[in-house]
Amino acid sequence: MIKETKTSQVVNGVNVTDLVNTINLIQETPEISQFKFRATNKWQNGTYNQATVKDFYGALQEDDTRDPLVFNIDEPPILLGDNKGANPVEYLLVGLSGCLTTAMVAHAAAKGIELRSVESRLEGDLDIQGFLGLSQDVPVEYQEIRVSFKIDADISAAEKQELVEMAQKYSPVFNTVSKPVTVNVGLDNA
Amino acid sequence: MIKETKTSQVVNGVNVTDLVNTINLIQETPEISQFKFRATNKWQNGTYNQATVKDFYGALQEDDTRDPLVFNIDEPPILLGDNKGANPVEYLLVGLSGCLTTAMVAHAAAKGIELRSVESRLEGDLDIQGFLGLSQDVPVEYQEIRVSFKIDADISAAEKQELVEMAQKYSPVFNTVSKPVTVNVGLDNA
To answer: pLDDT of B154-173, one tens digit each?
Structure first.
């Protein structure tokens, strides 16, 4: 449970005092919870392109203070690329892994559950006949994604299972992947 | 259109000869189109964790030849992190941007459409009340993602629009996000 103290209460490296303060602020002014996250992409050559992450909107203001984070995206040679970076479906797994982990760690912290380590392995099944347009019967998307967590903490197996449930319940990427989300794609007319 | 030549035909940096050969091989032996992509994740502290991408399965064999690709995942200070990397929902946009771009470039190449440049901007709306568990009425996932493409090529506006449609039709990440995909999350009992 969260202890009431004058100084900051930090559990699992999460400042629970700041977390509670954020929750209180949102309950007073719900609009501060609206965020807009962004990326830009520039095609380089073939299956190689580069994405950049920098600014975002949140807590009623634009934040442009981060240095640009640049990501190389490519395919392995067997998929006609040159291994200049992870491929797009691998980046999706990276985001999913991070989101489930952060949701688990933050909600464990809010409950006062101390974790020693959290590791996970992810695997997704993809039939590239969909990408190649070879079959209408083969889904273009991942057919299934499996995630396996290993948690080290002084808690019961049932409590570990509860952490796995919380991770799924509160992870934005998990819910974006497992539910249908509207993606509007168009041409920039500017 | 694809020209029949003895040497490799390369359009937009995509080796269309290899692409056609791959398609022919898949039509003879469909199982080679089954891929498994993977990531592992290790929590570091607070909202900071690290994902690694290395091996995958495809074309009937394991491929372990890549050097490990390591990704730092964190949140900005306003979301209780320390900016050690892009956040999970930003990685999802990175993957989406790369996948739409590669689908567009490869299918344009297969049609013999030469592209000079392809750029895109992505933005997704997220209300963090979902992540924080503050409201049952607020979706945990992205509420909407918008993607805007800028294409430089000697083609008509209608043909550019057709490329945007093909990108959506053939992109695995676009279809994973816009359709419901099963994600099975459990505990490693090993």
So the answer is: 999 999 999 999 999 999 99
pTM for the complete prediction?
A: 0.96
Give bridge partners of residue A119 from the DSSP assignment.
A150, B42
Question: Cβ atoms within 10 A of the Cβ of B15, count?
Answer: 17
CA nearest A142: which of A121, A125, A123, A122?
Answer: A125
| Amino acid, single-letter form, for residue B97 | S
Interface membership of A17 toward B (CB under 8 Å): no
- Tell me the CA end-to-end span of chain A in Å, nearest whole number: 52
Angle at A147 between CA A143 and CA A153, to 5 degrees: 170
Neighboring chain B residues of A61 at a CB cutoff of 8 Å: none
B88 — contact with chain A (CB < 8 Å)? yes
Neighbours of B188 (CB within 10 A): 12
Shortest Cα distance, chain B CAs vs residue A103, angstroms: 7
Whether B124 has its CB under 8 Å from any CB of chain A: the answer is yes
Angle, CA B58 vertex, CA B57 and CA B62 arms, to 5°: 40
Q: Which of B25, B57, B102 to mutate against chain A (most A CBs within 10 Å)?
A: B102
- How far is CA A56 from each of CA A30, A40, B32, B59, rounded to the nearest angstrom? 18, 12, 41, 40
The per-residue pLDDT for range A107-145, each reduced to its tens digit, is 999 999 999 999 999 999 999 999 999 999 999 999 999
Q: What is the ipTM, given to two decimal places?
A: 0.96
Instruction: Establish if A21 touches chain B: CB-CB under 8 angstroms.
Output: no
Radius of gyration from C-alpha coordinates of chain A = 20
